[in-house]
Amino acid sequence: MKKVRKLFLPAAFLTLIVLLAACGSGKKVVSSNGDGGAKVRLTGAGSTFVYPFFSKIFDEYHQLHPQVSVNYQSIGSGAGIKQITEKTVAFGATDGPMTDEQLKAAPGILHIPVIMGAEAVIYNIPGIKSGLKLSSDVLAAIFLGDIKKWNDPRIVKLNPGLKLPNKDVLVVHRSDGSGTTYIFTDYLSKTSPQWKSKVGKSTSVNWPVGLGSKGNEGVAGQVSQTAGAIGYVELAYAVQNDFTYAVLLNNSGKFIKPTAASTSASADGIKLPADLRVSLVDSPNKKAYPITGFSWMLIYQNQKAAKGKVLADLAWWVVHDGQKYTKPLNYAPLPEAVVKMDEAKIKLLEANGKSLLDTK
């Protein structure tokens, strides 16, 4: 396995300062803040899963209109939910939707999907450069600690062409509250009754075995440095850092690689609830990769007029023009049906009873 490059490896609390525009783009929206408008600073915090996307699009947005600055902290979904709940940031970002209990503590927060992403199961097995196949039951057994060696018969059966070593398995998982963990444990809970009963799904769980590392970058670094290690990270981290990652058996019995196309397929036929809090894991689509999910911006419906207008325009741009940057970064663009629902959500953002978007 190659050493991790530093392209997408920010420190857990590294603050990214970028300048962006307060101009709405997309359908039927008129910007209220041109290039000569007053400077506005926004803050956001949360998901590391979505960080590569945010990093790119915020820079692109800056090229268009440099009068608005955004401070986005890639500190994990759990921390993002906490900060938006406490209203210390303008928006949060999460890959695991807020629970009913969390929403009761923070009434008025809207979930706005911004991308679809896949999680890669990365590994560092001496002598195995590619081709490892895993099923959901075997993956659950590894993370439960039931499979302790890479040449366990259950893994060998799935990989007759690989010479798997008699090497200890080391599980690496997130130590912080994480939407990436939510998606991963959601998948294991849906496909493994044993995992569901013993561990369950959440942004933070009691792991039966393994070492914890902070952020996608922390997990990636630990797996890279440890022979025999296995972990889970957002696909962009795996691709950008040349990790080897597993091919997974999906709901239809097909081994599927994580790609933008197989991520998109996971949303086909999914019934979308009005609040857009929905799971995409273990899709029945035969072309779908099984560990996928949305990343959401979390925004309070009621805003202060000046900053709220800038935030609404930003969110509108992200779910329209910003989508063209998804595939180059190994994400999938939002389906049209989700974009339409996002539009309706963003139009609900208001100050003093008035919509913050100018529509015609």
Describe the protein in words:
The protein is α/β, with parallel strands linked by helices and 360 residues long. It folds into two domains: 171 residues, D-Maltodextrin-Binding Protein, domain 2 (3-Layer(aba) Sandwich), CATH 3.40.190; 148 residues, 3-Layer(aba) Sandwich (D-Maltodextrin-Binding Protein, domain 2), CATH 3.40.190.10. The strands form four sheets. Strands 1-4-3-5-13-6-10-8-9 form a nine-stranded mixed beta sheet. Strands 7-11-12 form a three-stranded mixed beta sheet. A two-stranded antiparallel sheet has the order 2-16. Helix 11 packs antiparallel against helix 12. The longest helix has 15 residues. The N terminus is likely disordered.
**CATH class descriptor name of the largest domain:** Alpha Beta
Q: How many β strands by DSSP?
A: 16
Strand order, biggest sheet? 1-4-3-5-13-6-10-8-9
- The ordered H/E elements are EEEHEHEHEEHHEHHEHEHEEHEHHEEE
Helix content: 25-40%
Strand content: 15-25%
Spatial separation of the terminal alpha carbons: 54 Å
CATH superfamily of the largest domain: Periplasmic binding protein-like II
- Which second-level CATH architecture of the largest domain applies? 3-Layer(aba) Sandwich
Secondary-structure-derived class = alpha/beta
Write the layout of secondary structure elements.
Elements: E1 15-20, E2 29-30, E3 40-46, H1 51-64, E4 68-74, H2 77-85, E5 91-94, H3 100-105, E6 109-124, E7 133-134, H4 136-144, H5 153-158, E8 170-174, H6 179-191, H7 193-198, E9 211-213, H8 215-225, E10 229-234, H9 235-240, E11 247-249, E12 255-256, H10 260-265, E13 292-300, H11 305-319, H12 336-346, E14 350-351, E15 354-355, E16 358-359
Parallel strand pairs: 3-4, 3-5, 7-11, 8-9, 8-10
Antiparallel strand pairs: 1-4, 2-16, 5-13, 6-10, 6-13, 11-12, 14-15
Helix pairs in contact: 11-12
